[in-house]
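Note to self: keep these together.
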Amino acid sequence: MITSDVTIRGVSKRFGTNIVLQNIDLDIKQGELLTLLGPSGCGKTTTLNAIAGFLDPDEGELFIKGKKMNGVPPYKRDLGMVFQTYSLFPHMTVYENLVFGLKVRKLKKEVN
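Structure:
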């Protein structure tokens, strides 16, 4: 039974002969804060890209809210990702870039 919002079981990823992820297990529950910490090249970004669906694992399974995500495209995963490099729309203000994803999802504006 899967009880986490994001579950990774036995995930491995290779690029050619370079093993970037090897048999990774991870559980992330809703509301948890998680930090991936390690030296350059240890697989942090590869792990995030696999969760987001930008990379398919060579082995293992990924689940989001109990649903298997292997082979599911990024736009069907109901996730957001902030990239390490600048990926802003140059014709928009900072605010417009920040709310872009919310507008695409047609989320209602709430004021507290």
